[in-house]
Write a structure and sequence with these properties.
- The chain has 245 residues and is of the alpha/beta class.
- Helices cover 29% and strands 24% of the residues.
- It is built from eight helices and twelve strands.
- It has a six-stranded mixed beta sheet with strand order 3-2-1-11-12-9.
- The longest helix is centred in the middle third of the chain and has 13 residues.
- The radius of gyration is 17 Å and the shape is globular.
């Protein structure tokens, strides 16, 4: 079984469409989204419609939770709050109800896969894992995690191999799971990469070979940014797409 796992679409329909097109050549059997379908971008309904159709399971992201009224986001900076308020008004009733129903975590027990948006340690707090010291917080709950825990949230591609008392950061490239280790993998962002690579990020996990692979695809950034510039959103949300931050 080949699983297509992606995250942090952030209402960027151009990036999501490019990722879906790229997946068609990858013989993917099932799709999973790790959250933040909305926020920042100009196409929340279009993205929600596609993710609802394609993904077997979608995990609740912090922006999804905010738009759905499931968390307090008053401490977010003004431009981000404005985008969330705007998306809450723009979403159809069906898409809003869908966001309200999303889980914080889902386990694919047959394949040893755990899905969540941020750190699995305190799910409702949406904490980041982009450094070994943050991955180390997973050690006390290691036995509660699958062989590979897939997360989003940071918009970065990261790999951490864990075993009792040990965390090792690995290069974010194709790798095979090793016996005796569990993995926490950040899959990057479809709609707003922040690793200075402006291409949309998506990933594939082969449950038979136990291989995980990072992929990137170019998309029409100009169109995506123009929609932001011409709408009611902070212009920087469009500018940052060009440089991948």
């Amino acid at each position: 079984m080949r699983l297509g796992i992606f995250s942090d679409v952030h209402a960027n329909i151009e990036a999501l469409s490019a990722v879906m097109d790229a997946y068609r050549s990858e013989d993917v059997d099932r799709y999973y989204c790790l959250g933040d379908v909305v926020g920042y971008g100009a196409s929340p309904n279009e993205c929600a419609d596609i993710v609802r159709q394609k993904a077997e399971i979608t995990i609740l992201g912090n922006h999804d939770a905010a738009v759905a009224g499931r968390m307090d986001y008053s401490y977010y900076y003004e431009a981000a709050r404005h985008a969330l308020d705007l998306h809450a008004r723009q979403l159809t009733r069906e898409n809003l109800e869908w966001l309200k129903s999303l889980p914080y975590r889902h386990d694919l027990d047959d394949w040893g896969v755990t899905l969540c948006h941020g750190s699995p340690v305190r799910l409702e707090e949406f904490e980041y894992i982009f450094a070994p010291e943050q991955a180390r917080e997973c050690l006390p709950i290691l036995q509660q995690l699958g062989d590979i825990t897939l997360i989003g949230h940071s918009h970065l591609c990261k790999v951490f191999a864990l075993r009792p008392g040990e965390v090792e950061e690995l290069p974010a490239r194709k790798f095979a799971l090793r016996d005796g280790y569990k993995y926490v993998v950040s899959v990057g962002s479809v709609g707003q990469p922040r690793d200075y690579d402006n291409r949309a990020s998506y990933t594939i996990f082969d449950t038979e070979t136990r291989e995980f692979e990072f992929k990137r695809v170019e998309y029409d950034i100009e169109s995506s940014a123009t929609k932001i510039f011409e709408g009611e959103l902070e212009r920087n949300f469009g500018h940052r797409l060009f440089i991948g931050v």
